[in-house]
Amino acid sequence: MSAEKEVKLYFVRHGETHFNVEKRIQGFCDSPLTDKGIKQAKSVGIGLSDIEFKAVYASESQRVVDTAKFAIGYRNIPIITDPRLKEMNFGVLASLLITEIQAQYGNILKKLSSLTDLNMSAPEGESYLQLFTRTSAAIDEIIQKHKNEGGNVLVFSHGDTISNYLMQLAKMDSYPDHDNCSVSVVRYLNGEFYVDRIADSSFRDKFCK
């Protein structure tokens, strides 16, 4: 049995979308990247261009797939989509303006963001624990595929999905806020995880004017 080699996961949140600008909750629903979002995706791709990646994984949501395509650019690496990397399911809140949610459901967003109960969910949505379960299942599978040869792996996903995964993986007290096309880096070796970067926008900003 060969020894494991280090797998380094680079998590990238998708670029800015129209729903982001309009301040709508996206979740499982989707909206296209804005021109700025496309620039962000291309820029983070350039910022990561010195790194050799063994594979690319992405949520099946179109905004994430498009971000991955723009970021990868000329690199000949296939994008493997996985529905378990999708955004948190916000149930009935999806596609609604934040102001509409406040009018119809009061302070539900504040309750959710307080993180006092990781079992709490939006009506017809999923909880933070459920989100972590499916996200970690996908990541564990990716690690199993690559731990024999090791190397760097790109994972394109969503703000809440990445933030929640890191928070519960590293047992953080707070919820890291991931800007569009920010990068978080997690290393795995011999059953241990090490968080190297959280929501680092420097890869994107170096080339995003």
Structure, explained:
This protein is α/β, with parallel strands linked by helices and 209 residues long. The chain has a single domain (7-205), classed as Phosphoglycerate mutase-like (Rossmann fold), CATH 3.40.50.1240. It is built from eight helices and six strands, in the order βααβαβαααβαββα. Strands 3-2-4-1-5-6 form a six-stranded mixed beta sheet. The longest helix is centred in the middle third of the chain and has 19 residues, at 128-146. The chain is globular and about 55 Å long. The model has no long low-confidence stretch (mean pLDDT 95).
Please name the defining characteristics of this protein.
19% strand, 8 helices, alpha/beta, Rossmann fold, 209 residues
How would you summarize what this structure contains?
By secondary structure, the chain is of the alpha/beta class. The protein has helices at residues 18-22, 35-47, 62-72, 98-105, 108-114, 128-146, 159-169, 202-205, and strands at residues 7-13, 53-58, 79-81, 151-157, 183-189, 192-200.
Query: What general form does the structure show?
Result: globular
Largest sheet: 6 strands, mixed
Report the uncertain regions.
none
Determine the number of helices (DSSP H or I, runs of at least 4 residues).
8
Class in CATH?
A: Alpha Beta
**N/C terminus separation:** 49 Å
Number of structural domains: 1
- In the CATH hierarchy, the architecture is 3-Layer(aba) Sandwich
Cα-atom Rg, whole angstroms? Answer: 17 Å
| Percent of residues in helices | 25-40%
- Identify the CATH homologous superfamily: Phosphoglycerate mutase-like
Going across the major beta sheet, what is the strand order? 3-2-4-1-5-6
Q: Give the tally of β-strands.
A: 6
Secondary structure class reads alpha/beta
Q: What is the chain-wise order of helices and strands?
A: EHHEHEHHHEHEEH
CATH fold-level name: Rossmann fold
Strand fraction equals: 15-25%
Average pLDDT level: 95
